[in-house]
Queue: 2 jobs
Job 1
Amino acid sequence: MLAQQDSMAFRKCVQVLLRYSLAPGSTRTHPRFLHTVPRLCSQSQTDGSSGSKVLVHFVNQSGVKSSVFVTEGETLLDVVIKKNLDISGFGACEGTLACSTCHLIFEESVYDKLEPVVDEEVDMLDLAYGLTKTSRLGCQVTVERWMDGMTVHVPQEIKDQRGKQEAVSSK
Ligand code: FES
């Protein structure tokens, strides 16, 4: 199981590195890039056996609440996938900052304490439907102890910015 997770983490890191290094006008030497890639790689290598358990509530597009205990250090994208939460179209690009389908809306008191947003995340958020002042991308937010009991909301509509597929709630 751990070997499989390590393999997935490695693939995710390679995807991110290739995406940025092959893009026209590559930003691979930009300080924001140097900050983002190690964070993506280290987050995805969480083995799920260490760290505290944190209670997180997700409210999906239909208003259905799911409460799960998650491992500190996982991203919210990891949580949705591992717990198989019923959130339509979530995490289409697997955390490579290319889709914005992992858009989540946070409580203001939680949002204010989150790690600063990087330029690449801002670019994706700008394209997201239903953007709010407390919106973030779930693939960029790591669960920490202090988040215990928080509730995150999935916006009513999401769109895959890669243009390959669209997932819109039934409202
Ligand atoms: Fe695609 Fe987060 S999963 S931007």
Job 2
Amino acid sequence: MRAARQGAQRTINAVVRLVAPPNIDAPVATLKVGSANVERLKKLGIKTVGDLLLELPFDWESYGGPTPVARLTVGESATVVGTLGAIRSRRPKVNRTGLKTITESHIVDDAGDELPLVWFNQAFVGQRLKSGDRIAVAGLVRARKYGDPRMSNPHFEILPAGAAAPTGIGGLQPKYHLVKGLTSKKIAQWVAAALPAADHLEDVLPAEIRRRHQLLPVAEAVRNGHQPESPAEYRDARKRMTFAELFELQTAFAMMRAQQASEPAVPIPYVQEVIDTLKVGLGFGLTRAQRQSMWDAFQDMQRVTPMNRLLNGDVGSGKTAVAAACVAMAHAAGMQSVVMAPTEILARQHLAKFRGYLEASFRGLSVELLVSSQSAPERKRVKTSAASGHCALVVGTHALIEDDVQFAQLGLAIVDEQHRFGTRQRELLRAKGRGRPHFMAMTATPIPRTLALALYGEMSVSTIDELPPGRIPVVTEVIPPDERERAYELVRAEVRAGRQAFVIYPLIEESEKSAAKAATAEYERLSKEVFRSPFTVGLVHGRLKEKDAVMQQFVRGQIQILVATAVVEVGVDVPNATVMMIEGADRFGLAQLHQFRGRVGRGAEKSYALLLADDPSKQSLDRLMLVTTITDGFRLAEEDMRIRGMGELMGERQHGLSDLAMRALKEPELVNEIRQEAEELLASDPDLARHPVVARAVERRLAVTSIS
Ligand code: ADP
Ligand code: MG
């Protein structure tokens, strides 16, 4: 019994004493976290003791000091000290939600007032606590429909006789980023065990920079950040950690900029006639944003420093026309271009668009396709045409970056859906010419401009923030689970009217394998029950070999209803598709939902996006409702950021940046200051020979950062 009476803090201290100070580079397993937790931490990007220490809490839960029951406020977290009343565990009568045990009791404070307590599915509580124990509880005070307010699932600590306050619970408790199976309390315990090693952390910030910006040394920041004595200590720690992250990133950018500037490109002069000719051939008027983006690019291409530009525009905003204008300009200067897309089907659609935009208007401008499914003689023909300088543009997939693909005069390299390619692949494409080609990356990820500038610090950014006129808005509806049949009926009605539909399944459990399984099972059910023959139903997921073939069938209309997982590239033009039904819509970011929605509404017909939520809570539905009222992808991205944090928006750790650093990116002044420090450091030590810690950090950063 005595052993059970140890408070959490004492357990932590014991752990700290038993284990020698851990090595900073040692795997987290050395902290005895258990193999399941090693895997969970890995999902958070935490592999070593050092990683664990560098990840500060993102917020704090304030329970305050011990409060008399009479002064508690419903809806607030609090700590209460007193004596435990009778305690009993029971099984619930009805069990619909996986509820196995309910443990009920109450605490009587020193004034004699009672507060009911309840724990759900925590059977061990009934074994650890007994009536008459002096304990502290900390948790949220909730109102009840019947009876007095109570605390549910409170943390608790058994107090030694006479103690007035707990040591391990209550007060301020850290909130860490979590995955399923982890709790902030567990992480706090491991961090406590690791903290003695903090002194061995390398400080990436040179002392001079720390002094100029009044930043803490890393060890102190880590100690104060995890176990602050005051809110100010935590703020200062966080400020320092954020600064260091952005400093690493900005130094990486500055190095890349310096390197680019040292490799000249062939300038491509601006020729007005090219644009005039292009406009006549397009058959539509350019939007203001398209004209601005073209102009940005033309100015870049006139320089010896190679263009390095991100073209950021919503789905359907007309990025291809901007790219085509650049290709035409390069052609007029006698230079070839290359466009790389992530899938064959996208490459083929590009081929059709670029040919449509360019071949009839510009004499001698020919566009070719290079993908791995072509016959060997055909590939050979295209390669010869590229190597001889005969064709002006080659559109293709990864097949483009193979060794034997050469260009006589490559002046411009363009990558579509740039996030789908790694740094190395983009580098290989840019290495296809003699000297360095101008480079443009296209993305439909709606990143707000300020953020894009800070994140892609080595690139310039053009944003296409308007859609071509005349698009019919997609009717977007949030459908409650019990009205699913209505969604099915709409799909059937549209298909009977000759149109097509997508049904999207979310990535559950972060594995494409299980998503593929879920989609496959749903496909079976849908094709046998919901959309029985004569409806034709197809399935694509990331693990399917014949993805492209299935997509082609859908494009040709041989498949009417396409069941797909989210990881599958559906970035194809199927103007005949009018319904986008999204299952588990609450699992997606708003901006991502908007992207799916952009796959329909491309033709003249009225289109529908139907959002079905697994989680029917008001909060979840309210969030989805935003997609029905906001039609601008950038605004939805901002909302995502507000609600779910930047990390969510950008995909899991895509940039290796913490949420806090992402948030700080929104402060242009801070980013500027940090950028200046990075540039000054590089000016005095160009290859960071005298700053090995910075050099290592930059290298790590570049490995995880998705930039050009
Ligand atoms: P995305 O930015 O998603 O790559 P696309 O370049 O594929 O968009 O353009 C989507 C569709 O809009 C294409 O069919 C294209 O021809 C058409 N389009 C592009 N620009 C305009 C415009 N200014 N006016 C009308 N239609 C346009
Ligand atoms: Mg496109």
